[in-house]
Design a protein that fits this description.
3 domains; Rossmann fold; Lipoxygenase-1
Length: 689
């Protein structure tokens, strides 16, 4: 399962022979540097670039291209190499864009040799930079990991290489640019531009996250330029890389050959060669979803044929587009959401039209005083009402037909959902095992509309979370009058928060998600029992003002450290033993136990935390914090508001429907929660041994 990284996030690598795939939409230069444990590059022989594309365990492209594939063999890396940094740069002097702000956000993916994606990263936020350290592979405690970097340099390759400690940075950058210019001069003309895909069907629904098809292919297909590092720079006096091959190096054994690969992971043709787009070829920037790949996703499994001509096909789980079954199911769920939104919007529009038409007809009849006398007015009124009823009945039949089809699809999809997407009563949880990879999304509840309350659509949210969560324990718009007492609402709110936290713990690999709890008055002890008794919390729940201060100070410091490390490009400079996992802070009874300083720290975590892996989940009644006035308005707005009871409060911006949200509570009497958390705790203990 693919881990979609954000800046500063890391992910373990279980394979040693890898491909690093780069897609940018415009021709760019791709290279890599090898460095020691301090991040220092000791000489030009530690840099793989188009003029010298091979090093021990590493091969890069020989020219600029819109798409690249870099081959890496971690087992072949010398012991002196502790970090492999992947570099991207815009070619100079060829009339192309001068900065990454003028091109689509580059997408980088680490895959196995079979094309299976391990981790990916979309480099956003670049403006005036013309070179960037995309990501790095690094050693940590005897194992290799990948980290998303995204550190850009306005001064180009020379500034980037100098920042990594290379003395000959300026000369090497000039040599690389010269080699790229010579290679691009021999490139053939660009292929015709790809036509825009206007089909917005269920296979490519708007919320879908599958990669879109790129019009460019791997560009390292021209003959080797023959250009090597020019200028014969003075030697640094440092020893070259142990085992560095000399001129005429052979490619890595069993590594994919860049001159013969054009397809995606499932490509059946690996013999044809396609040149990259020529620089300055123009064309619009592709602002579609950034997960670009060299080929379209594999087609979904064929749907079962209809039972009779004219009848809808039998629903099939996973019939949307995507690279994996989890991605297909994710896209299919969002396709169901869109279909239900469309059909409900059509029904409501038809009802509005029927009402307006009846009113118009009645106005025309009643505007004539003669029609008000006798039975003429009554007959006209009955005729208008009959037409209205006929139109609404036709709209209702169409709605019921669509809802029946969606219900049949939901009956097939729901049992096929993996644990992160499934309800707590799904049998998939009985076969639960701690995952090895982070999922692409997690289920936070269910959604339905009043026209078809029996049809429930899973509410799936992408991971890592981009916003914190607010479990509103105050008065809601729910029609259920069972929980009118504030104590009951707070208790149910905390139970809902525990269910969310347990699911997030369960869907992450061991040691990749850490949960902290602030419970100042201890009122959530009963609800927190599954987390406390199984030992999955990082530490016991914090009580009192002192506990609030200690936890907030620790997490605030963590956010500051990670931000400084990421901005300074020194992620390995974090303190020894630093916990790099995603962090979740669950806060109960806010603002009890919070002073002004603690409130400001909480706001800081809500604003700055998600970008560096610190997430917030609050169980709170907004009225309890009314004394702060508008000071806390930005805090509430920054969080995704959920409720512990069914409530019509989630509105989609697409058609403006107000959806009823239902929380994912564990069925009464079920032991699934302690069973799952026990496995999570055991996996964490095994990891720490």
């Amino acid at each position: 399962m693919t881990a979609e990284l954000v800046r500063g996030q890391n992910h373990p690598l279980s394979q040693t022979r890898l491909e690093i795939r780069v897609s940018a939409g415009k021709p760019i230069v791709a290279g890599a540097t090898l460095s020691d444990e301090h991040g220092t590059v000791h000489g030009v022989e530690w840099v793989a670039h188009p003029g010298a594309p091979t090093l021990p365990g590493l091969e890069v492209s020989r020219q600029a291209a819109a798409d690249h594939r870099l081959a890496v063999d971690l087992d072949a890396m010398p012991d002196s190499v502790h970090r492999i940094s992947v570099l991207l740069a815009l070619p100079t002097g060829v009339g192309g864009p001068a900065s990454f702000g003028a091109v689509a956000a580059p997408f980088v993916a680490v895959t196995g040799l079979d094309g299976t994606e391990v981790a990916s990263y979309t480099i956003t936020g670049l403006e005036a930079e013309s070179s960037v350290v995309a990501l790095e592979l690094y050693r940590r405690q005897g194992a290799w990991k990948v980290r998303a970097i995204g550190q850009g340099y306005a001064g180009g390759l020379a500034e980037l290489l100098a920042d990594q400690g290379l003395a000959e940075a300026q000369q090497l950058a000039s040599g690389i640019n010269e080699a790229v210019t010579q290679g691009m001069a021999r490139s053939v003309a660009a292929p015709p531009p790809r036509t825009a895909d206007a089909d917005r069907s269920r296979q490519t629904a708007a919320p879908a996250v599958g990669p879109d098809q790129s019009g460019s292919s791997y560009g390292g297909t021209s003959p080797q330029t023959g250009a090597s590092y020019g200028g014969a720079s003075p030697q640094t006096g440092q020893a070259p890389l142990p085992g560095t091959p000399q001129t005429g190096q052979t490619p890595l054994p069993d590594a994919p050959q860049p001159t013969s690969f054009t397809g995606g992971p499932d490509s059946a043709d690996s013999s044809s060669v396609t040149q990259s787009a020529a620089p300055g070829s123009g064309g619009p920037i592709d602002y579609s979803h950034p997960r670009r790949q060299n080929a379209a996703p594999p087609p979904p499994p064929p749907a079962a044929p209809p039972a009779r001509p004219g009848q809808p096909a039998t629903p099939v789980a996973g019939d949307a587009s995507g690279w994996s079954m989890d991605e297909r199911l994710y896209n299919q769920v969002w396709g169901m959401f869109e279909d239900l939104a469309r059909t409900a919007a059509s029904y409501r529009s038809a009802v509005d039209f029927a009402d307006s038409r009846m009113e118009k007809e009645l106005d025309q009849v009643l505007s004539d005083p003669r029609a008000r006398i006798g039975g003429q007015g009554d007959a006209a009124r009955e005729a208008a009402q009959a037409k209205r009823a006929q139109l609404i009945d036709q709209a209702r039949q169409s709605l019921e037909r669509d809802v029946a089809q969606l219900t049949a699809e939901a009956d097939v999809v729901e049992p096929a959902l993996p644990a992160p997407y499934a309800r707590w009563d799904n049998p998939v949880w009985h076969a639960y095992r701690v995952p090895m990879e982070m999922p692409m999304a997690v289920r936070l509840g269910e959604l339905h509309l009043p026209e078809c309350a029996e049809l429930r659509i899973p509410m799936l949210v992408r991971l890592p979370l981009e916003r914190g969560l607010w479990i509103d324990s105050g008065r809601t718009g729910s029609t259920d009058g069972t929980f009118t007492d504030s104590h009951d609402r707070r208790r149910l709110g905390m139970e809902t928060a525990v269910a969310h936290a347990a699911r997030l713990l369960a869907v992450h690999p061991a040691g990749e998600f850490t949960v902290h709890v602030i419970d100042p008055a201890g009122s959530g002890a009963q609800a927190l029992a599954p987390l406390v008794q199984t030992g999955v919390l990082a530490s016991p729940p914090a009580h009192g003002a002192a506990g609030v201060t200690e936890v907030l100070a620790r997490l605030t410091q963590r956010v500051d450290l990670v931000q400084m490390a990421v901005r300074g490009g020194a992620s390995d400079a974090l303190p020894p033993g630093f916990d790099t996992s995603q962090q979740l802070l669950v806060v109960n009874d806010f603002p009890h136990g919070f002073d002004d300083r603690a409130v400001n720290q909480l706001r800081y975590l809500a604003d700055e935390g998600p970008a560096v892996g610190v997430h917030l989940m609050m169980v709170a009644d907004r009225e309890d914090a009314s004394a702060y006035g508008p000071l806390l308005d930005p805090l509430w707005r920054s969080l995704l508001r959920l409720t512990p009871v069914a409530d019509d409060h989630l509105a989609d911006p697409w058609v403006g429907h107000c959806w009823t949200y239902e929380p994912p509570l564990v069925p009464p009497g079920s032991q699934v929660l302690p069973q799952v958390l026990t496995q999570v705790a055991a996996a964490r203990r095994d990891l720490n041994r």
